[in-house]
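Fold it.
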Amino acid sequence: MNTILQMAILVVLVIIALELFLIPIMFLYNKITESKYDASAKQYVTGELSVGIKDKKAVGQVVISGAGFGKVVLPAMLFDDETPSLNKHDKVLIVETKEGIAYVVPRGVDVFENL
């Protein structure tokens, strides 16, 4: 009985040690790969929401496919106060990205008309 308990404790300690070792590596990998994508207004990158955005403070999710990007999934927020909400599967224009978050407007809206 003592041996089984010692083995169980050893297994738990090994799992904890692996997690402590792998979490920083996964964090670094995410930081390195995330920094490769940067949309600007000049690129006019479009995507589709996989998670809707209810209001200005809510965070949704946009999927960008093709156009040399492969498939990129980013958290998304509304760019302006004029758009009350966006639903899942809405097509959007990515106006800018800051700190890994895509700021979006509905596709077809001219956000640059007042600039």
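Residues 1-36 form one domain.
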